[in-house]
Amino acid sequence: MFDLLKEDQEVIDAPGAGPIVVKRGTVEFNNVSFGYLPEKLILKNVTFTVPSGKTIALVGPSGSGKSTIIRLLFRFYDVETGNILVDGQNIKTVTQDSLRSAIGVVPQDTVLFNNSIRYNIKYGRLTATDADIIEAARGADIHDKILTFVDAYDTQVGERGLRLSGGEKQRVAIARTLLKAPQIVLLDEATSALDTQTERNIQESLNRMCANRTTIIVAHRLSTIIHADEILVLQDGEIMERGKHEHLIGQDGIYASMWRQQLDK
Ligand code: ADP
Ligand code: MG
């Protein structure tokens, strides 16, 4: 059932109800509470739904639990309280492989394999052709210096992945996700290590990829998420505010004050 995730949607024949369309890629957090250590809760009763193909944004101060939500969905840790569903299935009941093949994540701190750039990009889709890899690299604005590594990968197996700067690693992770084009995309401050111009160059390919996929985006700069279908404002592991950008700036709350602060800069 879960490996059908590759399809955007599927028509199934429901007994007595005729054909119904099942959307793929829905994400649900139901009353999730979580702590890395038993004595300290990091997420408190977090509930939200990302409908298939929609984008939600997570914002909030550093340490509020945004990355923890991403890590839980990718199952770096298991939740004991509440549950996380993908397409209605508890992620604890599906294999890591099928979960991770449906989800692409650009983590906040990218760790690459100790291998060539090409290997690291291709890890998103092992059957990719050279042309696919180069296209993904371009989409991530990987400049010629790194592309040379890609082109010369056969002789470059070594520590390339480890020798890159933070921003270069981030671009490799973005290229990997572009190549994988997964059903569900998780972007955790995916462009935070990049300069403004590079960020702009990449934003377009990210937007294109996310347009009809289920997306969770953690953003520091609010201007990048104003079009999200829903914005969740976290503080100390709790969702304090939620809604669309226009709604939230009209309220006298955390989001409106974050927005004003960023406008002032
Ligand atoms: P955000 O992404 O919103 O900045 P995180 O989800 O990364 O916040 O972290 C939330 C809280 O969990 C922070 O207080 C952080 O110190 C703590 N934390 C993160 N990872 C771990 C870990 N592996 N062990 C213990 N505490 C952690
Ligand atoms: Mg974070």
TrEMBL record:
GO CC field: early endosome membrane; endoplasmic reticulum membrane; extracellular region; Golgi membrane; lysosomal membrane; mitochondrial outer membrane; multivesicular body membrane; plasma membrane
Residues annotated as domain ABC transporter: 27-261
Localization (cell): Cell membrane; Early endosome membrane; Endoplasmic reticulum membrane; Endosome membrane
Keywords of this entry: ATP-binding, Cell membrane, Disulfide bond, Endoplasmic reticulum, Endosome, Golgi apparatus, Lysosome, Membrane, Mitochondrion, Mitochondrion outer membrane, Nucleotide-binding, Secreted, Translocase, Transmembrane, Transmembrane helix, Transport
Residues in the signal sequence: none
Any GO MF annotation of the entry: ABC-type heme transporter activity
Subunit (UniProt): Homodimer.
Family stated for the protein in its record: Belongs to the ABC transporter superfamily. ABCB family. Heavy Metal importer (TC 3.A.1.210) subfamily.
Protein name, per record: ATP-binding cassette sub-family B member 6
Upper classification of the organism: Eukaryota, Metazoa, Ecdysozoa, Arthropoda, Hexapoda
